[in-house]
Amino acid sequence: MPTHPAFPFPAEHALRPSPLLTEARSGHAPIRVQPRYGDPAWLVTRYEDARQVLSSPVFGRDHERAGVPADHISRVTPLDVTSDTFSAQDPPDHTRLRRFVFRAFTPSRVEALRPATRRIADRLVDGMIAQGPPLDLFERFGLGLPLEVICDLLGVPLADRKLFTEWSDALLNSTGTTEEAVASVEEMNAYLAGLSARRRQRPTDDLIGALVRARIEGDRLTDDEVKNLLRILLGAGHETTASQIPNFMYVLLESGEYERVAADPGLVPTAVEELLRYVPLLTQGSLTRFVLEDVEVGGVRLRAGDQVLVELAAANRDTAAFDDPEALDVTRKDNPHIAFGHGMHRCVGAALARMELQVALATLTERLPGLGLAEPDRIEWHVDRFVRRPKELLVTW
Fold it and tell me: In CATH, what number is assigned to the domain containing residue 257?
């Protein structure tokens, strides 16, 4: 039996891609790796190869179509975090369900949420100032902002919001047990089923209410479909952005670019795009793709039934796609990054995440221009999860 390098690769720093990724990309062709769970997979690191895999219908998200058993899926967490959701489906089911969700996350609807998001951000900063430094930016700001926004949008009661952070922690932690992950999914499913059932009895104007009563061309969602949509929206709608806010602030503060953005607020949009390109988020790189028919990628023949992981962080630093990709340039204009993925499975909440990150950076640099790291040499990082972030980010001002 051939052995393959363990994946994710070790890195000198959680927010700097492993040198092994650079080595793999310089070799051009995909390589075989062994993730923590499941079968070996092909790892794609080049930008053009990544776009091919993420956009071609030859690479599906439904493991059953490729004949891959659920317990053989290549992954870094004990449980496939997207199972039973539209993220793990292919057309026509994926297309049908995505239509219902996308209507809530169009750029115009997301932009309408910006004033309310700014009010939440200002209130959180007010609380930070009242408490005084040093404090944990993740706990006091990064977590609260996206969690409040997505819960307000969906209509989740304020008193229940902490539950979702606990469930997400259990699902995204690679060192937990499968039993713990399954229990978290079952608890979340039961809770969300109760919310949607109440909306059917008593309609509301929030997103849960809208999904429950929505009809597109005479079609409507079943209770299970509503529940599964809500699970992925609540998880992806707060965990990823909550992690990237402290990640972004760490990189800006460490590099000295925070002061530059604070002095020129007009840099916020390009700074956010550059940080999305530059800062790795997913430890796995991408959700697993399954090869549905023999295909060539980067000169390598992949067979039907093979599994593929796309390393977004490596692709986003490909010299074939970006000028001086190892440099953080908050003024970068030409920035076709694939931090949100690419193709039909591109993150449906990309517009919401982008707006939240812009509001977070604008609010912090405006209200706390003297922000700094309190203990930069003592930061511990979560690298045993599906997403990266500091365990806490102590800041002062």
Answer: 1.10.630.10
Domain count, the chain: 1
With tokens 């790291």, the residue in question is 373
Query: How many Å apart are CA 187 and CA 164, to the nearest integer?
Result: 10
| C-alpha span between 24 and 268 (Å, rounded) | 33
The CA distances from residue 12 to 119, 151, 207, 214, in Å, are 38, 36, 42, 48
In this prediction, residue 121 carries a pLDDT of 98
Q: Is residue 130 part of a domain?
A: yes
Q: Tell me the HSE value of 396 on the side-chain side, using a 13 A CA sphere.
A: 5
The answer to whether residue 170 scores a pLDDT higher than 70 is no
Residue 58 to residues 182, 297, 370, Cα–Cα distance (Å): 30, 11, 50
Lookup: tokens for 31: 């390589």
pTM of the model: 0.92
pLDDT given for residue 100 in this prediction: 82
Q: Which of 7-11, 17-21, 101-105 has the lowest mean pLDDT?
A: 101-105
**More confident position, 263 or 95:** 263
* Rounded CA separation 238/162 (Å): 12
Question: What's the pLDDT score for residue 65?
Answer: 95
Region at 2 (left for phi over 0; alpha for psi -120 to 50; beta for the rest):
beta
pLDDT score for 160: 84
Is residue 1 domain-resident? no
Average pLDDT over residues 205-212: 86
Q: Which domain holds residue 155?
A: 6-396
Q: Is residue 186 part of a domain?
A: yes
Question: Would residue 155 be called left, alpha or beta, if left means φ above 0 and alpha means ψ between -120 and 50 degrees?
Answer: left
How far apart are the C-alpha atoms of 323 and 53, rounded to whole Å?
Answer: 23
pLDDT at 182: 76
CA–centroid distance for 282 within its chain: 7
